[in-house]
């Protein structure tokens, strides 16, 4: 992929999520063409984008419950931090411990960061990284309102993380890496900033079959977590090439039904090509 193409994808994703942030989050419209990752309709700045859960009258709270968050987790975070943008619960996957340093790739409004902050405690630290200025501003406002002193948000691309070498115990991400046009470099950066024995705990979208070319070229579907999904085999190879070991990719086949509603009315069924998955790996000592 040419650099120009990569920048085009980044700008489309940045614009899409900037609109979500300014609109205050994702609510469900009548046509579920947007995924858990944001609106596929980038022509209108509204919060009537649809979600991975599809249908109408679905709130971010209901979406998060479907993705594996408990009612206590959802209720324990300030309103507006949960924007309904996930495809799993990486905080539950991470098994965080007090005192750990956590980096969240594509932190959005800060929902997962605030949940992680409670688990690592005052002696721990959580760093959220997002390339969308509007998201960073929203997350910082949310952190101030919550009094989350052990959380900070940094503007940056996940392919070029503004984080020091060997400084993180765990890296989380929720339905974001699929949006990157340079996934191998995301994993290389994750490897760089992790301490030895540091680990990845990621919820993301992966392809179980090669995506049709028309899906890959549709910037709206890329921004909606459909068009940019890597295959499971490619994901494993990229993690290996980055240096990771103990790699696990666990597809959630039950997610296909939800994913099938992401782009209704098209000539394809998204659920035939992609699923949500949990991805884990470890940086060797």
Sequence of secondary-structure elements:
HHHHEHEHEEHEHHEHEHE
Which CATH architecture is right? 3-Layer(aba) Sandwich
- Taken together, the total number of domains comes to 1
Annotated CATH topology: Rossmann fold
- Under CATH, the homologous superfamily reads Vaccinia Virus protein VP39
Biggest sheet layout: 8 strands, mixed
Number of strands: 8
**Helix count from the secondary structure assignment:** 11
**CATH domain class name:** Alpha Beta
Strand content: 15-25%
Rg over CA atoms: 17 Å
Q: Return the average pLDDT rounded to an integer.
A: 82
- Give the fraction of residues assigned to helices: 25-40%
3D shape:
globular
Low-pLDDT ranges:
27-56
Determine the N-to-C terminus distance. Answer: 33 Å
Structural class: alpha/beta
């Amino acid at each position: 992929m040419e650099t120009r193409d990569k920048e085009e994808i980044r700008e489309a994703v940045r614009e899409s999520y900037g609109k979500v942030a300014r609109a205050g989050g994702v609510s469900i419209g009548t046509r579920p063409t947007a995924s858990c990752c944001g609106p596929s309709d980038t022509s209108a700045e509204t919060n009537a984008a649809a979600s991975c859960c599809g249908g109408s009258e679905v709130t971010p709270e209901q979406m998060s419950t479907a993705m594996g968050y408990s009612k206590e987790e959802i209720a324990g975070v300030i309103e507006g931090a949960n924007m309904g943008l996930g495809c799993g619960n990486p905080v539950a996957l991470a098994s965080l411990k007090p005192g750990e340093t956590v980096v969240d790739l594509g932190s959005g409004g800060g929902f997962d960061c605030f949940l992680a902050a409670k688990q690592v405690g005052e002696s721990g630290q959580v760093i959220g990284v997002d390339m969308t200025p509007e998201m960073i501003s929203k997350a910082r406002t949310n952190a101030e309102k919550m009094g989350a002193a052990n959380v900070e948000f940094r503007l940056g691309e996940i392919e070029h993380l503004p984080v020091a070498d060997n400084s993180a115990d765990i890296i989380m991400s929720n339905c974001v890496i699929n949006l990157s046009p340079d996934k191998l470099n995301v994993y290389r950066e994750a490897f760089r900033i992790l301490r030895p024995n540091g680990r990845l705990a990621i919820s993301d979208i992966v392809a179980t079959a090669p995506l049709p070319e028309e899906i890959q070229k549709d910037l709206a579907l890329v921004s909606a977590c459909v068009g940019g999904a890597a295959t499971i085999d490619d994901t494993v190879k990229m993690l290996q090439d980055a240096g990771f070991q103990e790699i696990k990719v666990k597809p959630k086949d039950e997610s296909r039904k939800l994913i099938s509603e992401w782009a209704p009315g098209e000539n394809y069924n998204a659920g035939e090509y992609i699923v949500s998955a949990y991805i884990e790996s470890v940086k060797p000592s």
